[in-house]
Amino acid sequence: MKKHLLLGQTLAFDGNPMDDWQGAVRHDSAGGVLVADGVIVAVAGGAALRADHPDAAVLDYGDGLITAGFVDAHMHYPQTPIVASWGKQLIDWLNTYTFPQEMRLADAGYARQVADTTLDLALAHGTTTLCSFCTIHPGSVDAWFEGAAARGMAVVGGKTCMDRNAPDGLRDTAQSAYDDSKALLDRWHGQSRATYAITPRFSPTSTPEQLTALGALWAERPDALMQTHLSEQLPEIDWVRGLFPQARDYLDTYEAYGLLGARGLYGHAIHLAPREIDRLAEVGAAVVHCPTSNTFIGSGLFDMAGLAARGLRIGLATDTGGGSNFSMLRTMAAAYEIGQLRGTALHPAQLLWLATEGSARALHMGGRIGHLGAGAAADITVLDLASTPAIAQRVARAADIWDAVFPTIMMGDDRAIRDTWVAGRRVVR
Ligand code: GUN
Ligand code: ZN
User: Fold this and answer.
1) Which residues does ligand 1 sit against, CB inside 6 Å?
2) Residues 260 and 354 placed together within one structural domain of the fold
3) Of 202, 230, 325, which is best to mutate to test ligand 1, by the most ligand atoms within 8 angstroms of its C-beta?
4) What separation in Å is there between the alpha carbon of 298 and the centre of ligand 1?
5) Residue where a domain stops, chosen among 319, 337, 362
6) Structural domain count of the chain
7) Which listed ligand is nearest to 293 at the C-alpha?
8) How far does the centroid of ligand 1 lie from the alpha carbon of residue 166, in Å?
9) Residue 323 alpha carbon to ligand 1 centre in Å
10) Cα(391) to centroid of ligand 1, in Å?
11) pLDDT tens digits, residue range 10-55?
């Protein structure tokens, strides 16, 4: 396969910058990324790579910033058509907007159309991997993985399981959730770049029988991921308490049924009790921060500093369509704003790490995606750090790379995405 050499500023990580960002980050103002066979072969000085690989096709991005492609660790592709729907908090929002929309994905052709739209929007926003909830319909899972395979993208997905507290037409049963999830897992997990996540939506919409069945499936297939929601909003937590009176806390409604583990992804995780944090840390589970959703739906302020200090793996995500935006730049900005409201200013290096390597580690794909380094997939995003007049006038007086990149994090959108590469193929621009 043809070799490509991307020249520009490069930003890569050697370690986790949540502890010490300066020791973890490598910035090269005249760097290069050599790509062949869909994989990153080397990240080094641009001139040296050019001299050593005269046969490579060169793309010179000048001052463009070459980073790993963004990884959106929690979203709902079926909700793309209802993003930014007005005026509701979580439970009313689900009943008013979300469930009627998800019902429409009973039509597999429509599901594929929504999957295609979502994947193309993601690529235009520099996002190369997404971890999505599908709907209860198995065809919605096929649509998601087929759309991703057509684009060469590594994605995660799973059939959303619900056997109570959802409208007619949007409920399965404990048995059918097990059977359908198992068949989809067998069909897709490990096929091309697909990863299957067993997906109970959240404990209010699953009976103990369904949670038990899905826990059993995860025990049979521990190589699969498991994704769900946890402690997003206070009325939701009260509801869970009423539905599971014997549970010690919200996390216990998963733990008691075999749905707590290192390959578990717990979206939101805002209002956690100390026992829940201890257990998540002990088992090595991942929590996923969805900041635009948490402000948009009115959920609360995620404790990034506290949870990172406990060593929890933390992903960053749009949570489309509860989240209000497809852009991981806007998502980083919202994470910064929530951090400020809690008294911690996240550094741009930490925000970019969360949107790439942090999310990849949450998905157990660290080093393989979201990583600008040899051996990782060549899923790459190139940022224009002066994409609008407002950003350009600010960057003109930037003192260093962080001062130059932070305005794009705070004010950037898809106009800041100069190029997106998937598995060594240039797919945007
Ligand atoms: N909790 C259960 N389902 C959902 C959903 O679709 N979006 C969000 N934000 N929270 C949920
Ligand atoms: Zn969600």
Assistant:
1) 76, 90, 94, 98, 201-202, 229, 232, 293, 297, 319, 322
2) yes
3) 202
4) 12
5) 362
6) 2
7) 1
8) 12
9) 10
10) 33
11) 999 999 999 889 999 999 999 999 999 999 999 999 999 999 999 9
Instruction: Look at the block and give the residue holding tokens 């660290």.
Output: 366
Q: Is residue 41 domain-shared with residue 79, that is, in the same domain?
A: no
We report the CATH number of the domain holding residue 111 as 3.20.20.140
- Token duo for residue 196: 């299957």
pLDDT digits (tens, 9 = 90+) for 173-182: 999 999 999 9
| CB-CB contact of 353 with 24 (8 Å) | yes
Task: Answer yes or no: do 208 and 161 share one domain.
Answer: yes
Indicate whether 141 and 187 sit together in one domain. yes
- CA distance linking residue 299 with residue 270, whole number of Å: 8
Q: Which of 362, 387, 408 finishes a domain?
A: 362
* Residues shown for the chain: 429
Identity at 323, one-letter amino acid code: G
Range of the domain at 93: 70-362
What 3-state DSSP class applies to 29? strand
pLDDT exceeding 70 applies to what percent of the chain? 100
Considering only CA atoms, give the Rg of the chain: 21
Q: CA 4 to CA 412: how far, in whole Å?
A: 27
- 223 and 338 part of one domain: yes
Minimum-distance ligand to the CA of 132?
A: 2
What is the 183 CA–ligand 2 centroid distance (Å)?
Answer: 23
Q: Give 58's strand partners.
A: 5
